[in-house]
Amino acid sequence: MSGRNGVQFRDVVGRKVAKARLLADIYDTAASSIALPIPPDAEAIAMFRLVIAEVLGLIRTRDRIEERAQAMLGSNPDYQRLLQIPGIGPIHALTILAEAGDLRRFGHHRQFLKFCGLDLATYQSGKYGGQTRLSKFGNARLRRAMWLAAQVAIRQKENSFRDKFERYIAKDRRNADLNRKALTAAGRKIGARRTRRHQKRP
Question: At how many degrees (to 10) do helices 176-199 and 140-153 cross?
Fold first, then answer.
């Protein structure tokens, strides 16, 4: 299926597509498709337009934040290094620098993962043996940034984060718990990559 601008919806996964353009294609395709026989002034149509307007408003807000981030940090070498990592855009790079500060203060990538709460901890109780899982004791905003960056990276083509995710879920792609753990593993890998890149800086 394709819309006004010729975007093939089956090709959207795996590459970056402007959301505003995609929404316009979906709207135009829906207008010419078989749908419920309701008049243009129906309440359902009004609600649909409100939802579309809200999404477009969020997109405009995101674009303004990205412009501000670029204006403030465009010449910052750390910001430029972060943008080279798959899954990291201007907003994520801004969040990382605002929350973590100078990444060179972390002597090892494990220190940075612990700061984010992405380090592994073993929990024990009287009934159960040791269970290893994320500590989640660190900076929640950084942890969320990692997770969101991983979501973007695994949908891009040919990068090590997507490769790690695909290997993790190879046994059962439909297993929701396995997919969640694979996404977390990709986020941890992104965190480790960020710290290593900044450790190399003289």
Answer: 100
